[in-house]
Amino acid sequence: MKKILVYLLLSIAAVSFLYPFYWMVVASLSPAGDIAGLVFLPSEFTMDNYWQMIAKIPIGRALMNSMLVATITTFGVIVFCSMVGYALSRMEFKGRDAIFYIIIFTMTLPFQITLIPNYITMVELHLVDTYAALILPFLLNSFAILLFRQAFKTIPQSLIDAARIDGCSEIRILFQILFPNIIPTIVVVGILTFMNSWNEVLWPLIVIREESLMTMPQMVTLFSVGGRAEGQLGVKLAAAVLLALPILIAYAFFQKHFIQSMASSGLKE
Amino acid sequence: MKKKKWLPYLFVAPYLLHFLVFVAFPVLFSLVLTFHKWNIISPMEFTGLDNYTRMFRDKMFWKTIGNTIQFLLVHIPLQLIVALALAEFLNQNIKLKGFYRAAFFLPVIVSGVVVTILWQQLFGFDSGLFNRLLTNMGMDKVGWLIDPDIAMNSIAIMATWKNVGLYVILFLVGLQTVPPHYYEAADIEGATHWQKFRHITLPMINPTIFMVVILSTIGGFSLFIEPYVMTGGGPLNSTLSSVLYIYKQAFQYYHMGYSATLGFFFAFLILTVVMLQKRFIETEEVD
């Protein structure tokens, strides 16, 4: 009896999380007149909203920009943050502890304080309206460094010593010998970085004005709040579906990794 | 084995450069900006403490703090109750656990822009799903996003829906750290469900509660895209968030000095609130 109640409540919860997404996808495929009364199925399915959206905004270009920015950022974070994590955990040098404390300090710093000055830096460096503005500020972050540092700490010293005696350079030790041993960490960092980069919207709104450089979230946001959707719900929703789709597809394949990665980022405190 | 002393510094050099450009400089420059008036184009003008006195007299600044408090008062309790309840359900011996978890987690990974556009439709006054449901049940429509008293609560509900899946997972991890023999011992003593929850579960998951409260608080102070897309901060500035206000001061009015002052103060406020919460929850634990 009690079990049934638990299942009932869980199912109600599951529906309340899934149904809005179902509604969004179906509404984006419905004729304009059907959306106001839509519950389960429209009178007919149509791609109209999508064709209209494509005619109104360069969504293909935005998709490409998002892919480019998120991919480069992800590769950059994995390379640069693993180097720092390796140095902090496996190399002896003066100032190591100081750098570690700087990393912890940076992690607790609210972004509100750096937002305006960072914009001014972009202006002064003439980086407004460049891909660099979308990528450079995100290439290093405290959390990824700490994850890599933690992962490298678990690797036996003998593995590193053997490689050093063989005359391997530190760069080769890091990327060829240690990397295969920390794949779970690379996956976590990769997923978090890609997802955060893909979903970032405040920073692009600040540093990008040129339409051909806009990423998906910015394009969809400006389309939605600006006049170009002309109040057509279906077209707005179609844009939202396209923005969500790549992450949803990735989630379908790597669901467990997504949950683990996000949970570990929540547990960082 | 030859020792290259400079090599470790080469490894951390990108980080140090990044730290100087994107953290150290901005923090210091932000402080400098708070004493200046500047629209980026004309030269900076030193104005002493003007930005600070202006801020404390600025009705809109106090409005954003009030709005944030209203958001947090709805968001934090709702988040804790829903997340804890769902985690409790999932922590029992049930089938399809993976499916439920994946469903709850879905909004967490999706862009806030998507969630906001979607909920803007759900909250619609005339044909939004919620009001259609209410009308069907014979109740009055609610002005989810057009009633100034309600709009911030609506955003708090939406934010809970978006984030709660993450906190379900965190609570689930927390619940699994409770040793089963604690419950067994309580069963022998004849403890009720509520007693077990109050005296065993709750103290054991206190660190998780603390984390959820802090992350939600930081989230409340970071609200931007939700009001930006849904309401533009309206109606009657009832959903103007701190970040949206910083954004408007900087990029609509080009008050760089004043917006930096707001940013500086809000960062200070966040750190203070988080520290107070930490204090408060830690003393609770000792009791």
Can you give a write-up of this model?
The complex is a heterodimer of chains A (269) and B (287). With 269 residues, chain A is mainly α. Chain A has two domains: 46 residues, no CATH class; 210 residues, MetI-like fold. The longest helix of chain A has 32 residues. Chain A is globular. The mean pLDDT of chain A is 90. The mean pLDDT of chain B is 91. Helices cover 72% and strands 1% of the residues of chain B. Chain B has 287 residues and is mainly α. Chain B contains 13 helices and two strands. Chain B is globular, with a radius of gyration of 24 Å. The longest helix of chain B has 32 residues. Chain B has one domain: MetI-like (MetI-like fold). Chain B has a two-stranded antiparallel ribbon with strand order 1-2. At the A-B interface, helix 1, helix 3, helix 4, helix 5 and helix 10 of A face helix 1, helix 3, helix 4, helix 5 and helix 7 of B.
Number of domains of chain A: 2
Major β-sheet of chain B, in short?
2 strands, antiparallel
Q: In terms of per-residue confidence, which ranges of chain A show pLDDT below 50 for 5 or more consecutive residues?
A: none
Rounded Rg of chain A? 23 Å
Label the CATH architecture of chain B. Orthogonal Bundle
Number of strands of chain A: 0
- Quaternary state of the chains: heterodimer
What is the H-and-E element order of chain B?
HEEHHHHHHHHHHHH
Report how far the terminal alpha carbons of chain B are from each other. 57 Å
Report the order of strands and helices of chain A. Answer: HHHHHHHHHHHHHH
- Give the fraction of residues assigned to helices of chain B: over 70%
Largest sheet of chain A: none
